[in-house]
């Protein structure tokens, strides 16, 4: 059933994951419903790992389990430590999380949101810098609630970047967990966010992103994990996962995979109607 | 009275933080002024300005003036400060906890729950074992009000919050139900009360600082103070909670601990305030709202400034209540309602587009 064994060795034997993220036999139940079951996976620092899969396959739930937000069975280790034994502030020093959408209940300004909860938030320079990085350099004084969904998403990214770059945090690589980071964005800002996250990985950090768009995933990811119905269907490098066979099986839809004329990256096309 | 500068376009955030700190100083001065007025002005006919001046110069003052000052006005002023700060901070905490600017202990039934506790304590205290009643002493009414407020806050949070999000409609509807239930049970208790208890109840229910005595001050303040001291420590957690419970957790906040402490603080502050002075409405919703308009929603400033402005406004309202129809007194609850209810309506009017009902 699973393609995992022939493309991806046992994650715990992968030396890169000693500093990375591993999940062994992870399950999540919400109420009486089993959302995830028997998940084995690994993600290494220095790379971008993307989770894809059909709607309802458990992508966001897996991300929430890996960030420590929801309870799970099995074992999740981040940077060599068991997630279950870590306090919220310890986790916050090792990883930042960008949710799909973040509504705000009081009229904070954009700069206040980015600096929210940073003890060093008195210093406006890093805040301005983070906002400039996501292309919102002039937005600091505007009210967050008045921005569009895509702009709010980028403000939140600036906030998360400030969190994972906090110099007062512990040593060791920092992780970015991104839940559909580009779904609300136009194509230029999609590229901008993908570049920021790839730069974070290139600098030695870890990036784990839930993705919806398969073409952007091919561009973004080093490694892709495919979920279907709460289980891992496939896991491996982009070139081995973004294939017509695997994706057609995952989504139950006969997709065609071609090659980008310039980059030679896989390009996913829907079947004719 | 307070500089309420708000404009359609936001200012640089640093300005708002500076303004909030300046406001803290101005509000402290305003509170000091209100304390002086509260000590000097009263129904006794004698203005105590000259007495206060004499006291400041270290001179002896007349016995009658001394009694009025130390036995009536000082405890009344202290109680006013405690009740005003408690009501305003309870409001700010509850709004932060429920992530909604309309949450207020008085509006969502927590005040009614605390009131039920207080009434139950007055009427049913005789049923307690004598040893326990003696041990609790004066504390029995505020302790019962605290338990009533705590129970209602917990229940309300359970009903109105699901998966980390609070439904405003559920919160208000549950508050109406809670208020009605507490009112009905309170009514039954009033029927069961004997004459002496009825007198206590009437006195209590007026919503007044008139009954202020040193014993009330010494029972009320020890319950209010821990809540008021705990509140600023919740500022960081409440700021993060504005992004939702999941984001607060991701930022390193122990969300459940923040919620527990906030709920306990609201219950203690509201319970003690209700037990000491009956129902005084609108302080908890109007004060934090005005401060958010003036200097933004950052709880690091909002909670401290709410305590100062709440205390000052309650003292001023109390001065109005005891001078406007002197030598009689208007219950202070009427003064705060007359001033606060229109402001509350104005808040609703301004927000009707933004409210997610």
From TrEMBL, chain B:
Q: Does the keyword Cell inner membrane apply?
A: no
Question: What's the protein here called?
Answer: Iron ABC transporter
Tell me which InterPro entries the record gives.
Answer: ABC_BtuC-like (IPR037294), ABC_transptr_permease_BtuC (IPR000522)
Provide the alphabetized UniProt keywords.
Cell membrane, Membrane, Transmembrane, Transmembrane helix, Transport
What is the source species?
A: Pseudooceanicola atlanticus
Q: Which Pfam families match?
A: FecCD (PF01032)
What GO MF annotations does this protein's record show? transmembrane transporter activity
Name the membrane topology term: Multi-pass membrane protein
Q: Transmembrane residues, as ranges? A: 74-94, 106-130, 136-157, 169-193, 213-231, 261-290, 302-324, 330-349
**Can you tell me which family this protein belongs to?**
Belongs to the binding-protein-dependent transport system permease family. FecCD subfamily.
Annotated localization: Cell membrane
The record lists the lineage as: Bacteria, Pseudomonadati, Pseudomonadota, Alphaproteobacteria, Rhodobacterales
Q: Name one GO biological process term.
A: siderophore-iron import into cell
Tell me a GO cellular component. plasma membrane
Q: Does the keyword Cell membrane apply?
A: yes
């Amino acid at each position: 059933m699973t393609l995992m064994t022939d493309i991806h060795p046992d994650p715990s034997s992968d030396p890169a994951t000693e500093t990375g993220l591993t999940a062994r036999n992870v399950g999540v139940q919400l109420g009486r419903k089993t959302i995830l079951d028997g998940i084995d996976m690994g993600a290494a620092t220095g790379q971008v790992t993307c989770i894809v899969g059909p709607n309802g396959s458990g992508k966001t739930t897996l991300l929430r389990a890996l960030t420590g937000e929801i309870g799970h069975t099995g074992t999740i280790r981040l940077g060599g430590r068991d997630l279950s034994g870590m306090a919220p502030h310890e986790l916050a020093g090792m990883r930042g999380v960008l949710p799909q959408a973040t509504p705000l209940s009081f009229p904070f300004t954009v700069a206040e949101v980015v600096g929210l909860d940073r003890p060093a938030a008195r210093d406006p320079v890093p805040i301005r810098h983070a906002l400039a990085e996501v292309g919102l350099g002039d937005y600091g004084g505007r009210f967050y609630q008045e921005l569009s969904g895509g702009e709010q998403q980028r403000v939140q990214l600036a906030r998360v970047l400030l969190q994972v770059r906090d110099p007062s945090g512990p040593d060791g690589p920092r992780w970015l967990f991104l839940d559909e980071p580009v779904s609300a964005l136009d194509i230029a800002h999609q590229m901008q966010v993908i570049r920021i996250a790839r730069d974070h990985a290139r600098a030695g950090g870890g990036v784990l992103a839930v993705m919806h768009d398969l073409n952007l995933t091919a561009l973004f990811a080093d490694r892709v994990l495919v979920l279907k119905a709460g289980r891992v269907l496939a896991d491996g490098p982009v070139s081995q996962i973004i294939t017509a066979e695997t994706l057609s099986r995952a989504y139950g839809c006969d997709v065609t995979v071609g090659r980008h004329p310039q980059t030679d990256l896989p390009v996913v096309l829907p079947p004719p109607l | 009275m307070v500089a309420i500068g708000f404009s359609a376009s936001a200012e640089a955030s640093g300005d708002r933080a500076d303004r909030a700190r300046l406001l803290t100083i101005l509000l402290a001065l305003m509170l000091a002024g209100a304390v002086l007025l509260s000590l000097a002005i009263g129904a006794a006919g004698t203005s105590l300005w000259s007495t206060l001046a004499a006291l400041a110069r270290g001179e002896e003052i007349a016995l009658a003036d001394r009694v009025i000052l130390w036995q009536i006005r000082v405890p009344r002023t202290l109680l006013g400060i405690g009740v005003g700060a408690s009501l305003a901070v309870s409001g700010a905490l509850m709004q932060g906890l429920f992530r909604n600017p309309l949450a207020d202990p008085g509006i969502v039934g927590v005040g009614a729950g605390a009131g039920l506790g207080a009434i139950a304590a007055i009427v049913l205290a005789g049923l307690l074992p004598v040893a326990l009643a003696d041990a609790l002493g004066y504390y029995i009414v505020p302790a019962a009000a605290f338990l009533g407020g705590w129970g209602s806050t917990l229940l309300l949070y359970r009903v109105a919050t699901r998966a980390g999000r609070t439904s405003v409609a559920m919160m208000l509807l549950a508050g109406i139900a809670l208020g009605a239930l507490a009112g009905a049970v309170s009514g039954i208790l009033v029927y069961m009360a004997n004459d002496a208890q009825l007198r206590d109840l009437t006195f209590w229910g007026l919503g007044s600082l008139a009954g202020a005595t040193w014993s009330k001050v010494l029972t009320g303040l020890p319950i209010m103070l821990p809540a008021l001291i705990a509140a600023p420590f919740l500022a960081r957690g409440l700021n993060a909670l504005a992004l939702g419970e999941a984001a607060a957790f991701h930022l390193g906040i122990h969300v459940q601990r923040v919620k527990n402490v906030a709920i306990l603080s609201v219950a203690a502050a509201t319970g003690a305030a209700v037990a000491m002075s009956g129902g005084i409405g609108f302080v908890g919703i109007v004060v934090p709202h005005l401060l958010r308009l003036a200097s933004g929603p950052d709880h690091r400033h909002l909670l401290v400034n709410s305590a100062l402005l709440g205390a000052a406004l309650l003292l001023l309202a109390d001065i109005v209540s005891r001078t406007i129809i002197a030598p009689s007194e208007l219950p202070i609850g009427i003064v705060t309602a007359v001033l606060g209810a229109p402001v509350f309506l104005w808040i609703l009017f301004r927000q009707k587009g933004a409210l997610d009902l």
